[in-house]
Every structure is written in structure tokens, then in C-alpha cells.
Design a protein that fits this description.
heterodimer; A: alpha/beta; Hypothetical Protein Ychn, Chain: A; two-stranded antiparallel ribbon; 4 helices; B: alpha/beta; 5-stranded parallel β-sheet; 5 strands
């Protein structure tokens, strides 16, 4: 099967609606199909990858650890929009430490998060072939 | 041009369910091809045959069903999203030990791989959602 550039655009907070959880399910399937996968985190979507999520008060499963496993599926291009973080009073320090292991570089651990400006995000999006927005 | 359409919202609650249907009609009217329509999130509710809107309103599920029959469309409901929301075909209802199914003619239930394949095979993938 052909390989295409897939981008998953995450715009919603992790809880409150099912978009974030069900988006992750599509991301994992696309990785299984060996596509060239990127993720974008914009607007409230940046909350999906914040540290210290605790869902005990809302009776829902905390699925934030799934983002840490993405590197094992070769999903290692997670573009985070700087302006979206700033507008919410967040910095990169508030985000989980998401990494992948580069087998071509003696399995060195490398960061998966790529910080980009709003206009750089537009450039990354323009390069994609299939863009699915959640 | 070959299109894959993704529908992420349920009927009546959200305009995007109507917009997707209207877009599908427009695509076909202009002589393009629809490779697949994939229903995800609450979009799976576009495939129930048990909706009964007031008599003067549209019946979105039936419109999809008829469009599918007319143009031999492949309308696919995501199984994981459907199971959460209680959309079942006969085989799935039986497998889950449930006493009823509710899928409308013209739709089928399958996995998320069908969406990824749709994205690969189509020239354009268009998402309708919130």
C-alpha cells in the first residue's frame, strides 16, 4: 500500500468530549498502516499532552500515557503551536516529556515534540496529503 | 477526482451531518467519484434506522441510505465508535449477545483501517465535524 503524509490535528481538550481519545485510536491505526504520520496540537488540543493529568474526579480513564507510547509506533513528529500554549499560560515545561528512540543512531532518545509558531504550523499543514481534524 | 468523506457528527444535533450529505451529492452531480464515506465519533448515528423525526423534517439516515443505493456508495461505520454508541448490525448484535440491531440498509460496520485506506486511495479526504 502506498505511503502518504497523514496529519492529525488535535484541537480539543483531552476530556469533556471524545475527540481526543478517538483521535488517538486513528493515529495508532495509521501507524500500523505504516504511513508518514504527524500530529498537530493547537488551541485547547495542547492540554492533551500536559503533565500530571488526573481523572479520578470525573470517573473516566486517564489515557495520557498513550501519548508516551507513540514513539514506539514511529509516531515522532508532534508539532505544538507556541501561540496556543502562550494564550493558555502554558510553557513547554508543562508538557509531558515525549520521546522516541532512533534506531539509526544507536537507539538514542530524541524529543518528539517540535515547537512551531502559528505560521510555521501553516507551512507544515500545507505539506500534508491527508489532514484529519479532531 | 476521487473523494473520501469523513463524517464526525451525528444527525440533527450538528449541521456537519447535513453538510456532508449535501457535499456528497454535489461531488456526484459534478461527475466525481466517492471512494468511501467513513462515519466516526457521533457520526455513527447517521446509520441508525430507528430515527423518527417530525413528519415535516428530513430523515438524514434514509437520505444516505437512498443515495448509497442510487450510486453504489460504500458507507462505513467505525466499529469501535459504533459499539460505544449502540449502533449494531445483525452479526455484531448477535456476537455481543444483544436483543436487537439498528443499522439502516446501505451502511456496513468495519474498522478504522477503512478510513486510512480511504485517505490513501482518494485524491482528497474531506472531514465534516465540529
Amino acid at each position: 500500500m502506498a505511503t502518504k503524509k497523514f496529519m492529525f490535528v488535535n484541537r480539543k481538550a483531552p476530556y469533556g468530549t471524545a475527540y481526543a481519545l478517538e483521535s488517538l485510536e486513528v493515529v495508532l491505526i495509521s501507524a500500523a498502516f505504516e504511513q508518514d504520520v504527524s500530529l498537530a496540537f493547537i488551541d485547547d488540543g495542547v492540554y492533551q499532552i500536559t503533565k500530571g493529568q488526573d481523572t479520578t474526579g470525573i470517573g473516566q480513564k486517564n489515557f495520557s500515557n498513550t501519548y508516551k507510547a507513540l514513539g514506539d509506533y514511529e509516531v515522532n513528529k508532534l508539532y505544538v503551536e507556541k501561540e496556543s500554549l502562550e494564550e493558555r499560560g502554558l510553557t513547554q515545561d508543562d508538557l509531558m516529556d515525549l520521546v522516541w528512540e532512533d534506531e539509526d543512531d544507536d537507539w538514542a532518545e530524541k524529543p518528539s515534540i517540535i515547537m512551531v509558531s502559528r505560521s510555521e504550523m501553516a507551512d507544515v499543514m500545507a505539506e500534508q496529503e491527508v489532514t484529519l481534524s479532531f | 477526482m476521487k473523494f473520501t468523506i469523513m463524517v464526525n457528527e451525528g444527525p440533527y444535533q450538528h449541521q456537519s451531518a447535513d453538510s456532508a450529505l449535501q457535499f456528497a451529492r454535489a461531488v456526484l452531480a459534478q461527475g466525481h467519484e466517492i471512494f468511501r464515506v467513513f462515519f466516526y465519533h457521533d457520526g455513527v448515528n447517521n446509520g441508525t434506522r430507528l430515527s423518527v423525526p417530525p413528519a415535516d423534517d428530513r430523515l438524514i439516515q434514509k437520505e444516505w441510505s437512498e443515495l448509497s443505493k442510487e450510486h453504489d456508495l460504500d458507507l462505513v461505520i467505525c466499529i469501535a465508535a459504533a459499539q460505544r454508541r449502540g449502533i449494531m448490525d445483525e452479526a455484531e448484535a448477535k456476537r455481543q449477545g444483544l436483543d436487537a440491531d439498528n443499522i439502516i440498509e446501505g451502511f456496513r460496520i468495519s474498522g478504522l483501517g477503512q478510513l486510512i485506506e480511504g485517505g490513501i486511495e482518494a485524491d482528497r479526504t474531506v472531514v465534516f465535524g465540529d
